[in-house]
Design the sequence.
């Protein structure tokens, strides 16, 4: 019995907070960065990488004790991991399960990397707008200058 429980030991459940599940493999640290978590304050954060998953083969997972995400944070996660699931945990129960959703048009989360793009001009009140050309790996096309942004250009902004 003891051996058995050792073998099946998994990351512990959390009491209150958020479990971000089905993160694309290798993206857990990007999720952490996107959420501005540096480990210097806040509650317990658990990161699991390369966990076996029925749906994805292997996946990453992030558990954040004592924090629920706001809609903008969920949208950012959708950009880098379009199949992630956000579970809100209260008193050990999953009270809400939400699949992130990458919209076909991304507005207001990131900026165009081309400095000369009109969306970067201080005098023009234009909202940065991008079309999703490819989901995974992410490629976005700027509505104003047609410039293509790669995943790396997007991650740099968080
Ligand atoms: N979880 C947790 N702490 C809790 C409750 C759940 O860390 N108090 C974690 C579970 O370990 C799991 C995720 O939150 O990784 C989602 O929980 P649940 O919906 O119970 O699991 P599944 O049914 O496997 O989820 P899905 O169908 O989305 O794969
Ligand atoms: Zn542009």
Sequence:
């Amino acid at each position: 019995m003891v051996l058995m429980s050792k073998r099946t030991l998994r990351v512990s459940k959390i009491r209150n907070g958020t479990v971000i599940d089905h993160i694309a493999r290798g993206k857990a640290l990007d999720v952490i960065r996107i959420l501005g978590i540096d480990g210097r304050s806040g509650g317990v954060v658990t990161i699991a990488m390369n966990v076996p998953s029925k749906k994805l083969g292997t996946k990453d997972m992030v558990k954040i004790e004592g924090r629920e995400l706001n809609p903008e944070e969920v949208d950012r996660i959708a950009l880098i991991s379009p199949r992630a699931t956000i579970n809100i945990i209260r008193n050990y129960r999953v009270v809400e399960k939400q699949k992130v959703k990458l919209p076909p048009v991304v507005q207001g989360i990131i900026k165009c990397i081309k400095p000369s793009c009109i969306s970067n001009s201080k005098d023009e009140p234009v909202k940065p707008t991008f079309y999703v050309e490819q989901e995974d790996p992410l490629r976005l096309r700027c509505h104003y200058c047609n410039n293509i942004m790669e995943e790396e250009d997007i991650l740099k902004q968080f």
Observations:
- Residues 1-5 have pLDDT under 50 and may be disordered.
- The pocket of cytidine-5'-triphosphate (ligand 1) is lined by residues 13-14, 19, 21, 63, 85, 87, 89, 92, 94, 97 (CB under 6 Å).
- The beta strands are 17-23, 45-53, 57-65, 85-90, 93-99, 105-107, 129-134, 139-142, 148-150.
